[in-house]
Amino acid sequence: MKFSIDRTKFINQTNNVQRAISSKTTIPILTGMKLDLAENGLTITGSNSDISITSFISKEDADNDLTIESLGSIVLPAKFFNEIIKKLPGDNFNLEVLDNNQTLITSGVSEFTINGLDANNYPHLPEVATENQLIFPTDLFKEVVNQTVIAVSNQESRPVLTGVNFIINADGLTSVATDSHRLAQRKIDITSDEEYNLIIPGKSLTELVRTISDSVKEISMSISENQVLFNFDNVMFYSRLLDGRYPETDRLIPDDSSTTLTFDSSNLLSSVERASLLSHESRNNVIKLVIKAADNKATLFGNSPEVGTVEEALDFKTLEGEDLDISFNPDYLKDALRSFGGNTEVEISFTSALHPFTIRPMENKDTFVQLITPVRTF
Amino acid sequence: MKFSIDRTKFINQTNNVQRAISSKTTIPILTGMKLDLAENGLTITGSNSDISITSFISKEDADNDLTIESLGSIVLPAKFFNEIIKKLPGDNFNLEVLDNNQTLITSGVSEFTINGLDANNYPHLPEVATENQLIFPTDLFKEVVNQTVIAVSNQESRPVLTGVNFIINADGLTSVATDSHRLAQRKIDITSDEEYNLIIPGKSLTELVRTISDSVKEISMSISENQVLFNFDNVMFYSRLLDGRYPETDRLIPDDSSTTLTFDSSNLLSSVERASLLSHESRNNVIKLVIKAADNKATLFGNSPEVGTVEEALDFKTLEGEDLDISFNPDYLKDALRSFGGNTEVEISFTSALHPFTIRPMENKDTFVQLITPVRTF
Predict the structure, then answer these.
(1) Who has the most CB within 10 Å: A52, A170, A212, B305?
(2) Is the distance from CB of B186 to CB of B367 less than 8 angstroms?
(3) What CA–CA distance (Å, rounded) separates A325 from A344?
(4) Which residues of chain A have pLDDT under 50?
(5) Helix or strand or coil: residue B237?
(6) For the DNA polymerase III beta sliding clamp C-terminal domain, which residue ranges apply (chains A, B) (predicted)?
């Protein structure tokens, strides 16, 4: 295996693949990055037990300046290999595999000889058939993920709750996540010949949206029994799926309400951020919302026995319904409000002090809902 | 105590004072920030066992929008107080001390009540006479500190070596620091009526140069028996001095040399950074420089048994003298080269493989020197 390549183009692709590589893995070869050089170009692969990413650098594209002298494969220690390539002096670099997987990297005045590993020992990638691809506009896909992944559980006691449930049928795609204290659900229109119900690990989705650069317009998704494959540009992103049955969540979302307020989301977010400064110092991290309908007043209260108290007169747009005292974790409300992005008008609906309340964007009440369970404080 | 003030101007000053406040202090009141309101303005104070910083906000300056209703003092929990002020909604805020040191802070829709502490229990600031002030241009002072503080020891076994030695006499100011493996010495012209020999803790100097904003043109320095006071703009920065006798360092710097090279500092820095990528993985973190005068070649070698080897053909400007094999810690050379800033031409002089070598800027060979002790590898 021997080639030379444009250093910057190479770094752009290793940055994608690097996301799948963990130095903490128990399988030593997975701390490495695999390079496979074929007639048509170079494929770079990184993998851990959850996700695998490949990125392809085409010989056809003259910008890549890929000159091939001989084909082959090698696995190189990812951390050092990346640091070395980033610090090399030249615009290009040469890479040649010598005897015993020793790999010579040269660029300008620098010459590195790195101990590689036999690529035959690297695990095979999952096989995912790509006949029934679903196509998403990138912006919409990122929105769906970012709006729901905030509600996944980070506790392994119920593994399915660490994932986001994608339900694809004649109604489109419903994406839902819950950690049993809060829930996020977003629906979008999408056409699919097949019906699917899958649970994708939240961490995989978080890495996926970080990997997709802003220049990518479309992303395609292919599903097998225990793997999902996302494809965009020259990148293939594989994630395992979570086994098990996701809970029915539709019945958790209340239909009616006794008190409803509308807010500018960023205004309300600022007030909750201030109130949470003190609640973070108290043992139970709870703030209280007191609504006095007759006075047309809504006030947030936070306190920490050590530091002091805070009172925020909320700047709502409308208030309708009954009086209410309700307590909740301010961090859930902050996450929910941030998921609407910018200055969105939102509606918050309560049924009682002990029932979950919902936050919805005024413009898309039917397709997007954040739900938060209150905390009983008496 | 009751006043209102411009929030942004207030935050600018608390950001300075905050540098002196540690949440790890064993004296609880020092986790607080002291506010003293007098007729002419507000003084904010923060302190730890090493440094104290005060910042003054004048009533005279209309930009501060300081309206005083009643005078007084209070100590508030620094971390929360700062977070609260930063997140308040209004351009201004009001602060009023109520009974039992309870402090009411209001701004727009927000109302915080914070538990304060009695300002009478706050330690007194050191007393430093300011008759014999030394005046430095800020840029030059920062240069002197940044070029020498890199060589202070971070081990408490010899406390004086954790400081920078300032020697002020008829020759000007000599600033020197050494951790016994390397040494940095910078001399500048300065006029002083008195002679001084003091040791300022390296950490104090690092915080000091961070506190001095780019808009400050001059800084004055006043010295007492065990304290030094730096004054700039409306800020007073006190540091304790280190007790003890600083070692004589002049005799450590060699006068002659057997091999001399000149480099562009940033070129050499890049080569050393690459060579250190692998040495960092080996047990002793050493790289080897091999000079072959007859071949007009100088080569850096680094290696890690696990990862591999690196060879850098150095791109020097001139090479004179005898052949040499010398090994050293690359991190010391990186720190030294960075202290010259940008693309400076530097001269490196060696006497033997076991004696310290020096790095000096070509344009100021007599006033600035970095010295590094090699490592014996055989």
Answers:
(1) A52
(2) yes
(3) 25
(4) none
(5) strand
(6) 251-376
